[in-house]
Specification:
alpha/beta, Rossmann fold, 3-stranded antiparallel sheet, 12 helices
């Protein structure tokens, strides 16, 4: 048992001087506590979740996270689409406007349960509203493919990891526009859309809300994930350009205009800012 116990020292050294302040062990949970006080239930077996990345690397998307925290400051309504375990949801919820809300969407039931757990751990049930569904171009019931090795962060409406053992899960799909209508939402400041290839479908299903409110958008876009869905990321960049949005990505630590994805593109995270509504945000980044 001594060897088992002394291995805890390895984690102590691993998190020293990082964004992780502590790892709590209870009889039924492991909890990663970030230096800003955010608490996240941790499943070490689920490789790509935020708690794992925090423990393994000491930080989580540091450039993007900093820009998004600034954008979320004083927000009235944010959508976290493809919320996974809710790292961004609970981080943003700490700095909303009075009465502000985060609406989070996670279609995989087991991942959704961890999202709810993290909302409760951070005492944010009055500000973060979790939805066990996906968003798309039209309401439907579809199959989610959850690879057992790559884990919940790789779950998609397409089988993007055919070499892995796969769990198939039926899930409800709504549209962003329908969600806004049903819930009577009248503000929209920021959205994160990370849905493993189906980003264009989410955008199309939310056209009315996006064009009316012009939120800042943060999307993960990869050519290899969008291809099975029948589009190229440049199609999405062009569509949002027609709606008045410019695309931006981090280059050498600074946000820079991004016009077109090529085979040489290494960035996978992109901001879309409306030239009028986000003039101050753009100026703050010297854009």
């Amino acid at each position: 048992m001594r060897g088992l116990h002394t291995r805890l020292r390895e984690h102590q050294r691993l998190i020293a001087g990082t964004d992780v302040s502590e790892i709590r062990i209870t009889g039924d949970d492991l909890i990663v506590v970030a230096r800003d006080g955010t608490r996240l239930t941790w499943q070490p077996e689920d490789l790509r979740t935020a708690p794992n990345v925090l423990v393994n690397t000491g930080e989580y998307e540091p450039l993007e996270s900093a820009a998004l925290v600034k954008a979320a400051h004083g927000a009235r309504m944010i959508c976290d689409i493809g919320a996974n375990v809710g790292y961004y949801s609970v981080t943003w919820a700490r700095d909303l406007a009075s009465g502000g809300q985060v609406h989070s969407f996670e279609p995989v039931p087991t991942t959704y349960s961890r999202l709810v757990r993290n909302i409760e751990l951070n005492q944010l049930r009055d500000r973060v509203f979790a939805n066990n569904c996906g968003l798309g171009e039209k309401p439907d019931t579809l199959t989610m493919y959850l690879p057992t090795f790559s884990g919940s962060g790789a779950a998609s409406l397409m089988n993007l990891h055919p070499d892995e053992e796969m769990q198939e899960v039926k899930t409800a799909i709504d549209t962003l526009d329908n969600y806004f209508s049903v819930h009577g939402l009248d503000a929209f400041d920021l959205a994160k859309i990370d849905v493993e290839g189906a980003e264009l479908m989410v955008i199309k299903g939310g056209e009315n809300a996006i064009r009316e409110h012009r939120p800042l958008l943060f999307l993960e876009l990869l050519r290899k994930w969008s291809k099975p869905f029948g589009y190229h990321p440049n199609d999405l960049i062009a569509l949002l350009g027609e709606w008045g949005y410019g695309c931006f990505a981090f280059v050498d630590g600074a946000l820079s205009p991004f016009d077109r994805m090529t085979d040489e593109t290494v960035q996978t995270n992109f901001f879309f800012a409306h030239s009028e509504r986000h003039a101050a945000w753009l100026a703050a980044h010297d854009l």
